[in-house]
Amino acid sequence: MLIDLRSDTVTQPTPAMREAMYRAELGDDVYSEDPTINRLQELAAEITGKEAALFVPSGSMGNIAAVLSHAGRGQSVIVGDQSHIYRYEGGAASTLGGSPMYVVPTHSDGMLDLDRLRAAIADDSDEHIAPTALVCLENTHNRCGGTVLPTEQIATIADIAHAQGVAVHMDGARIFNASIALGVPVNELAHSVDSLMFCLSKGLSAPVGSILVGSKAFIHKAHRVRKLLGGGMRQAGVLAAAGLVALEQMVERLAEDHEHCKQLAYGLADYPQIAIDPERVVTNMLLFTLHDSQQRTLSEAEAGQFLAKAREHGVLMGTMGDGLVRAVTHYGLEAEHISAALNGIRKALIEMQL
Ligand code: TLP
């Protein structure tokens, strides 16, 4: 059996999800007539403490719809240099929305650099500069290794933005992981942001779907953008049914994924060729680099060779560039799979002869 640690996106729907999908009551959601989608949207709005919610096919579409709804053509969007929105969504704000992206540094805990953020927000009176419409955050932070931003840090960023009349969107693809790790409900984490996107299809194990939440007026705009992007779906209640199970049954168990990720991190820290700080692993994701006996960090190509060897020993992981390897724990993996993965990785390291 392959132990797939590439992402939590590889999770399969649970038996309860398949049952709910089979039985889902359906309608045409482009007319807002799918009762299962409507129920999911109501539940999502309630859990996040926002007025309204919109079911979208993917996390990327949720973020893109948020950015295009907050920022008009020629209005700029501030993003972290390590953010998913900036690095992995095709530059949608600029490509589709006509919004320049201003990039600010991200600290290793996933926090935006506050001085650079303040400096990046455009002074509205200067006609040389595109006015700022939006600041985007990410929680948990993917490229920082699943780090969490607590309520106070989110509020600090939101205060800076709101004081200048700028909205805040949180890419919370894994916000429930943040919530479980911090022991803080999602509505608290979402309190100071204007919109939040979260994924049903990652750690929560639904097959497809994400949710965008915000004010009624914002969701009204986002609904139009979703149609523009080709994301108006019809009897998509079959998917929303799995999403309802995800929210009702799959949130608390994320703690197990976090435990497993810690177990993996401490195991990896015992291998001399692996550089990792297990104390920094707080959710379901970890990052590490490899080095040889001279303490030289392995290149991206060498990390690729290691991944190929690990695969031969039954363990799948991914790289994030610059020789950085990522492993993600999720539903379907138990403690014994983590032990087996550590074993496979040990064999791959031996064969690398570092
Ligand atoms: N992340 C994927 C890859 O695209 C990297 C993964 O395997 O982690 N925001 C964040 C923070 C994400 O990590 C992702 C997906 C998305 C948005 C986009 O979600 P989808 O894949 O549903 O478009």
From TrEMBL:
Which terms does the record give in the GO molecular function aspect?
A: L-allo-threonine aldolase activity
Q: Which InterPro entries match?
A: ArAA_b-elim_lyase/Thr_aldolase, Low_specificity_L-TA-like, PyrdxlP-dep_Trfase, PyrdxlP-dep_Trfase_major, PyrdxlP-dep_Trfase_small
| Protein keywords | Lyase, Pyridoxal phosphate
A single GO cellular-component term from the record reads: cytosol
For the modification N6-(pyridoxal phosphate)lysine, the affected residues are 202
Q: Which cofactor does it need?
A: pyridoxal 5'-phosphate
Q: Name residues in a coiled coil.
A: none
Would the keyword Hydrolase be found if you checked this record's keyword annotation? no
Q: Does the keyword Lyase apply?
A: yes
The cross-references to Pfam families, in alphabetical order and at most eight, read:
Beta_elim_lyase
Biological process GO annotation list? Answer: glycine biosynthetic process; L-threonine catabolic process
Domain Aromatic amino acid beta-eliminating lyase/threonine aldolase as annotated: residue spans: 4-287
UniProt-listed NCBIfam families: GntG_guanitoxin, PRK10534.1
Question: What PANTHER family does this protein map onto?
Answer: L-THREONINE ALDOLASE, L-THREONINE ALDOLASE-RELATED
Which family does the similarity line name? Belongs to the threonine aldolase family.
Q: What is this protein called?
A: Threonine aldolase
Q: From which organism does this entry originate? A: Reticulibacter mediterranei
